[in-house]
Amino acid sequence: MNRIRIGAVGAGGFGLFALQQFLQVKGVELVAIAGTHREAAIAMARRFGVTETLEVESLLQLDEVDLVYIATPPFLHYPQARAALEAGKHVICEKPLALTLPQADELLQMARAGNQLCIANLMQRYNPLFEAVRQLIESRVLGEFLHGWFDNAAGDEGLSPEHWFWDSSKSGGIFIEHGVHFFDLFEGWLGKGMVVASQRVLRPGSGLEEQVQCVVRYANGALVTFYHGFTQSARLERQEFRLLFERGELTLDEWVPTRVRLRAVVDEAQSRTLMEIFPDAMLDVINTYSGSERLARGRHKHFDVYQKIDLRAGMDVEKMRRYCELLRAMFTDQIAWLADRSHPRVINEDNGRNSLAMACAPTQLADSSA
Q1: Do 197 and 115 share a structural domain?
Q2: Read out DSSP for 39-83?
Q3: Which domain holds residue 211?
Q4: pTM over 0.85
Q5: CATH value at residue 80
Q6: What's the pLDDT tens digit per position in 60-70?
Q7: Is the same domain home to 107 and 137?
Q8: Alpha carbon distance 165, 170 (integer Å)
């Protein structure tokens, strides 16, 4: 396909942000918008020069629409994606793909039967840091991966008590609405995992689910803790990944990671390998070792170390600029597959389904133990 014509469903702030990136990809154009929030929909139409906004049903009947981009609240994803697939359209949907696993499985079955695209926008795997961390783990340059944390202290200033986000029948709950990105990232790094514990905290006086955490055990036996709390002023919002290895620890900042800090003890060859994985990094030497000092021990193992290092990378990268890059990369990858079904995609239909499965498991476990 040399030309992709998009019909956008949903006219909120993020839909506008994402479409501006998709439309920078060569051969892509916006032909129709459907939105229930009339003021926002009209503003989006004005931004892109679309003459009028439509109802969803009318948009899906347009022959000139090849691909439907869905940016509505989560409870609408399944019915709208299903209707789009039935109308013969390809689908890119904001996360989560659906609210339940049977719904996601039905969408994927329909897409495969029709040779159609049906993905959730899990653009995090297009981040160059995703590949760098994968190489770090697989190379074992710092020894075995031992433990991980994802800590999300999120702001809730823009989420009034009446917002659909707090209604699990509309959002699926925090793990499903928000956690899928991070379950997908760690599956890309460590393979499939199993949820072994999960908890939730309700806001006093309102009963709203405001904090969740779970522990996932991965194939090598390592545990990873995921925490999401929507409790902060936007000024205090922060996200942090931490990955612990036998000979060091990696920290990534922001929910779209841009900055890296790695502290480790390494020998000469390992220092070189780390600079190959993070080629733009600055490596500070904190200490050097010689003679008998080079012998280090951990986990009842002996290993040789030349220096203690503090490596930093991505300090000048702007998060929003990187976010824009990831959206363009995701869309470019998917339309390449539409043109050539042999094209190997970074994310495919299984990512949306598997990340939802991982999110449903701790949601159900936390509910059952509440």
Answers
A1: no
A2: HHHHHHHHHHT-S-EE-HHHHHT-TT--EEEE-S-GGGHHHHHHH
A3: 125-318
A4: yes
A5: 3.40.50.720
A6: 999 999 999 99
A7: no
A8: 7
